[in-house]
Automatic annotation (TrEMBL), chain A:
<keyword id="KW-0472">Membrane</keyword>
<dbReference type="InterPro" id="IPR008995">
    <property type="entry name" value="Mo/tungstate-bd_C_term_dom"/>
</dbReference>
<dbReference type="GO" id="GO:0055052">
    <property type="term" value="C:ATP-binding cassette (ABC) transporter complex, substrate-binding subunit-containing"/>
</dbReference>
<keyword id="KW-0813">Transport</keyword>
<dbReference type="GO" id="GO:0016887">
    <property type="term" value="F:ATP hydrolysis activity"/>
</dbReference>
<dbReference type="InterPro" id="IPR012340">
    <property type="entry name" value="NA-bd_OB-fold"/>
</dbReference>
<keyword id="KW-0067">ATP-binding</keyword>
From TrEMBL, chain B:
<keyword id="KW-0813">Transport</keyword>
<feature type="transmembrane region" description="Helical">
    <location>
        <begin position="248"/>
        <end position="270"/>
    </location>
</feature>
<feature type="transmembrane region" description="Helical">
    <location>
        <begin position="117"/>
        <end position="139"/>
    </location>
</feature>
<protein>
    <submittedName>
        <fullName>Sorbitol ABC transporter membrane protein /mannitol ABC transporter membrane protein</fullName>
    </submittedName>
</protein>
<feature type="transmembrane region" description="Helical">
    <location>
        <begin position="192"/>
        <end position="217"/>
    </location>
</feature>
<feature type="domain" description="ABC transmembrane type-1">
    <location>
        <begin position="80"/>
        <end position="270"/>
    </location>
</feature>
<dbReference type="InterPro" id="IPR000515">
    <property type="entry name" value="MetI-like"/>
</dbReference>
From TrEMBL, chain C:
<feature type="transmembrane region" description="Helical">
    <location>
        <begin position="159"/>
        <end position="181"/>
    </location>
</feature>
<protein>
    <submittedName>
        <fullName>Sorbitol ABC transporter membrane protein /mannitol ABC transporter membrane protein</fullName>
    </submittedName>
</protein>
<feature type="domain" description="ABC transmembrane type-1">
    <location>
        <begin position="75"/>
        <end position="288"/>
    </location>
</feature>
<feature type="transmembrane region" description="Helical">
    <location>
        <begin position="21"/>
        <end position="43"/>
    </location>
</feature>
<keyword id="KW-1133">Transmembrane helix</keyword>
<keyword id="KW-1003">Cell membrane</keyword>
<keyword id="KW-0472">Membrane</keyword>
Length: 383, 284, 300
């Protein structure tokens, strides 16, 4: 049962390698977030964007150099990690190599002088949930990667802490195990209802697991929102490109008369796009964002956007085929039907629904035409 | 180049041309060891057989020399006890000093850490003669000459730089994540130290101790200059054979064997660790 | 420095200073303070036979030292000893390391036999060699020479320095062997395979792959051995006592003699400073190496 609040939190390392001289060389800057009780929050962003740093500040492994962190209303800045009642799952698992699985899991409880019977019962309970009962006597050395991962989870689980912190816990597993564990962690969270921070650089993991997702970049929050909103209403070009695979295509478009267009593409302007374009003064150009899954191979239709280019890459994936088309200077990715009757070098025409495109300011990269309510609740920073 | 292809395969298996090299390696191994073997052999002879112009290899062995070397009046036990006390004492004191220092430097590095570490190592390169005179004079005025305490401290000073370095590098091998996991699990500094770090570094600490023990046991400069009888070690004991008594070869050999055997055997087991300790991590 | 947990515990900083203080103090008291005192004494006129006649002597001790032919002999002997022992141990050690880097029957045992001399107490080494090996009448070497019809050699009186070199090399070749062998074994097999595929012969393989790989290791062996050879004492003490004449008197033995037999604190301190300077010429290189290693290691 815990609500975690971060207010204007910032972190500056004494020695920031490679960033010397840069003015705002903070690893994390102006971080604001308040969790709901029992919420599953995912921090996502490219490597080095400050996810681990944020997590480590919540754990107390690093000082925040500005702002404050509260757990259930209590300012924890002078509370030692061991007194924060937080459990953490490390990317490296950080199991104690000299202890058996049982003792790895029991260690925290033993330190708290929990009665032996209770320790045993709680370890066994956690081991049962994670299906590692048969491993309790083994040393970590004798476990596979997936098993170690479970032990690391188990070690956090037996604590019954106020908050779980998980820093890329699945990134050392192979792809198949990862998908399995993903579901398992979600299931565990639903069952235990403990407030959880989960760090990943993998947007698929973020989208499938998070109730709320914090997208970060260069130490700053870009957007905090539900998976659905992040996909539908990205606040800027970075979030739009980061969320969704393959990434959204961006075309630099000029505004003329009743349409947007450029070399090899055009898009009619409905009222929504008209309004968006007019937001904050008239613009003569903008970024036009189209997701690959929104491009279709349609011969001729009115009221639709169109683009055309020469095929450079064809990647059949089974259920769908990815095609990359050269439109002007830009390579546009389209997710098309499995059976395609085209070849590299062919010219391909594709259509899209203007209602599904996103517009971004050419300079600030900010999204244009977001409904005010969603924009107000979830937008935070500028690039 | 005439090397056949056969013995150039990876792993360097001894091929046809390798038999000669194998033989050579064995011969050299035996030759290097021979003086030690010869001392052992001589120790098992009677004084008459030991001291002859034509060496005997076949003889009926006797423990007579060992018996007389270990006899009450020989003083062997006195010196051996001093060796044990000073070697073990300096090893323990050294570990007690080195572990906290290495712990601080490995897990709580500050800007000065590197400097301190290099400075500590560099004191190893002050030759003993460079401090001999003041140490002697100060010891004399403090009554530390010919005391086990005084000698133990000198051994400690001699080994401390290497010990700090070794313990430091073993600590550095412990992933920082594990220490952090312990602190999140609720362990304080002492608990982290005794329940996580020390158990993990135990093999490393053992080899550090072993190396210190070997170096202290074999030390002769300080023993010869700072002790007479009361705190004199086996180095002094064997050195006393260097004149007149050297004519009793069997006894000299028995005494030598008793002096070097424990450490040579320890050395066999600590070969690899010696490398790491003595090369400051250049070779692992 | 990477993830330094300096700020790992928000409440209180780790008591770094208090944990390091004992070691630092210990080394200060037992090494640095005495070193400073040695320097001080070297400018004093101080003889233990006449303890009342102390006073500032300026550079007198150094003047005496530099005009003492024995000192120059000792310095020359020291350098000769270091150079010869280095040459022998490094060349022999490298050859042996290559020999023992092959897999063969009983390699572990043969290697253990070969490195055993390193664990022998130097005093005992001296005695074994002086009596049982080098004795002109009863020694093993003499017996061997007589057996093949040669005149036995008076090792310790005819070739004193060479005798000492033999003892020290017997002790230290194993050290070079052990370390160079470990170095060889850390050479990645694929590098050798690659160069063999490129058509290199054995010599080229050694010259272009093995030797460069051993570079750092050789460096360490040479530096460490120099420092130990510079301070050789027990072997000389137990055998020649610096003689005959001054033939095997090296710097440490010279200092020992002038302090404990001439009671001349000023002179022996000046000589000790000389020894420290000499050691430092070698040590600087090694310390630079250690410091470099530290930085490489800090990317943990
Ligand atoms: N201990 C540290 N000292 C200096 N800089 C650090 C340290 N840890 C992380 N950083 C820097 O802070 C930034 C954020 O790092 P991190 O939080 O680990 O990113 P992420 O977990 O998102 O990959 C990076 O630029 C990184 O180089
Ligand atoms: Mg990270």
């Amino acid at each position: 049962m815990a609500i975690v609040e971060l207010k204007n939190v910032a972190k500056r390392y004494d020695s920031m390698p490679g960033k010397k001289g840069a003015e705002h060389a903070n690893a994390v800057e102006d971080f604001n977030l308040t969790t709901k009780d029992g919420e599953f929050v995912v921090l996502v962003g490219p490597s080095g964007c400050g996810k681990s740093t944020t997590m480590r500040m919540i754990a107390g492994l690093e000082h925040n150099t500005a702002g404050e962190i509260r757990i259930n209303g209590q300012d924890v800045s002078s509370v030692e990690p061991r007194d924060r009642d937080i459990a953490m799952v490390f990317q490296s698992y950080a199991l104690y190599p000299h202890m058996s699985v049982y003792h790895n899991m029991a260690f925290a409880l033993e330190l708290k002088k929990t009665p032996k019977e209770e320790v045993k019962q709680r370890v066994q309970e956690a081991a049962r949930i994670l299906d590692i009962e048969h491993l309790l006597d083994r040393k970590p050395r004798a476990l596979s990667g997936g098993q170690r991962q479970r032990v690391a989870l188990g070690r956090a689980l037996v604590r019954q802490p106020q908050v779980f912190l998980m820093d890329e816990p699945l990134s050392n597993l192979d792809a198949r195990l990862r998908v399995g564990m993903r579901a398992e962690i979600t299931r565990l969270h639903r069952r235990l209802g403990v407030t959880t921070f989960y760090v990943t650089h993998d947007q698929t993991e973020a989208m499938t697991m998070g109730q709320r997702i914090v997208v970060m970049r260069d130490g700053r929050i870009q957007q905090v929102d539900t998976p659905y909103n992040l996909y539908e209403r990205p606040v800027n070009r970075f979030v739009a490109g980061f969320i969704g695979t393959p990434s959204m295509n961006f075309l630099q478009a000029d505004h003329h008369g009743d349409g947007l267009g450029g070399q090899g593409f055009s898009c009619p302007l409905g009222p929504r796009l008209q309004a968006a374009l007019g937001e904050g003064g008239q613009r003569s150009s903008c970024w036009l964002g189209i997701r690959p899954e929104h491009l279709h191979q349609v011969e001729e239709s009115s009221g639709r956007g169109r683009l055309e280019g020469v095929i450079e890459v064809i990647e059949p994936l089974g259920p769908v085929t990815m095609v990359q088309v050269r439109v002007g200077d830009t390579l546009v990715t389209a997710q098309l039907a499995a059976h395609l009757d085209v070849e590299i070098g062919d010219t391909l025409g594709l259509a899209f629904d203007p209602d599904q495109v996103h517009l971004f300011d050419i300079e600030s990269d900010q999204a244009l035409g977001l409904e005010p309510d969603s924009a107000a609740s979830s937008t935070q920073a500028t690039a | 180049m005439t090397a056949s292809n056969a013995d150039r395969t990876p792993g360097r298996k001894a091929g046809s041309g390798g038999t000669a090299l194998t033989l050579l390696a064995w011969l050299i191994g035996i030759a290097m060891f021979f003086p030690i073997f010869w001392v052992v052999l001589t120790a098992l002879k009677t004084e008459q057989t030991a001291f002859s112009m034509t060496p005997t290899f076949i003889f009926s062995p006797t423990l007579e020399s060992f018996r007389s070397a270990l006899a009450q009046g020989s003083g062997y036990w006195h010196y051996a006890l001093n060796s044990v006390i000073t070697a073990f004492g300096s090893t323990l004191v050294g570990l007690a000093l080195a572990i906290p220092a290495a712990y601080a430097m490995a897990f709580f590095p500050s800007r000065r850490t590197d400097f301190t570490l290099v400075w500590m190592v560099s004191t190893k390169f002050i030759p003993a003669v460079g401090v001999l005179i003041p140490v002697f004079l100060v010891y004399r005025s403090l009554g530390l000459i010919d005391t086990r305490l005084g000698l133990t401290m000198l051994f400690t000073a001699m080994n401390l730089p290497i010990m700090v370095w070794m313990v430091y590098s073993y600590f550095r091998d412990i992933p920082i994540d594990i220490i952090e996991a312990a602190s999140i699990d609720g362990a304080g500094t002492a608990q982290t130290m005794f329940r996580v770090i020390l158990p993990l570094a135990l093999p490393g600490l053992a080899s550090t101790g072993l190396l210190a023990l070997i170096l202290a046991w074999n030390e002769s400069f300080w023993s010869l200059t700072m002790t007479d009888y009361h705190a004199a070690t086996l180095a002094v004991y064997t050195a006393s054979f260097k004149s007149g008594e050297g004519l009793f070869w069997a006894r000299l050999s028995a005494a030598s064997v008793l002096t070097i055997a424990p450490i040579v055997v320890l050395g066999w087991f600590a070969q690899r660790q010696m490398v790491r300790g003595l090369t400051f991590g250049a070779v692992k | 420095m990477s993830a330094s947990p300096t700020d790992a515990s928000p409440g209180k900083r780790a008591p770094t200073k208090r944990l390091m203080a004992p070691s630092v103090l210990f080394l200060l008291v037992w090494m640095i303070v005495p070193l400073a005192m040695t320097l001080y004494y070297s400018f004093q006129d101080y003889n233990l036979m006449m303890p009342d006649m102390r006073g500032f002597a300026g550079g007198l001790s150094y003047e005496l030292l530099f005009t003492d032919p024995v000192f120059w002999d000792a310095l020359l002997n020291t350098l000769l000893l270091v150079a010869t022992c280095l040459l022998v141990t490094v060349v022999a050690g490298l050859a042996l390391a290559l020999l023992f880097n092959r897999t063969f029957v009983g390699r572990g045992i043969a290697r253990t036999l070969a490195i055993s001399p390193f664990f022998v107490m130097p005093v005992v080494t001296g005695l074994i060699w002086k009596y049982m090996l080098l004795d002109p009448v009863y020694g093993l070497f003499s017996w061997v020479m007589r057996s093949i019809g040669l005149e036995p050699v008076q090792w310790l009186s005819s070739y004193p320095l060479l005798s000492v070199v033999m003892m020290i090399s017997w002790e230290w070749t194993p050290f070079a062997l052990l370390i160079l062998l470990t170095g060889l074994q850390s050479l990645p097999e694929d590098q050798l395979e690659a160069v063999r595929l490129d058509g290199a012969n054995r010599w080229q393989e050694f010259r272009h792959i093995v030797l460069p790989h051993l570079g750092q290791v050789l460096y360490v062996v040479i530096m460490l051995e120099s420092i130990f050879f510079l301070t050789s004492f027990a072997e000389i003490y137990a055998t020649t006592s610096g003689g005959p004449g001054t033939a095997t008197t090296n710097l440490p033995y010279y200092i020992y003699l002038s302090a404990f037999f001439q009671y001349d604190i000023g002179l022996s301190s000046a000589a000790a400073i000389g020894a420290v300077v000499l050691a430092n010429i070698f040590a600087i290189f090694l310390i630079r190496f250690v410091a470099g290693n530290l930085n490489a290691g800090s990317q943990r």
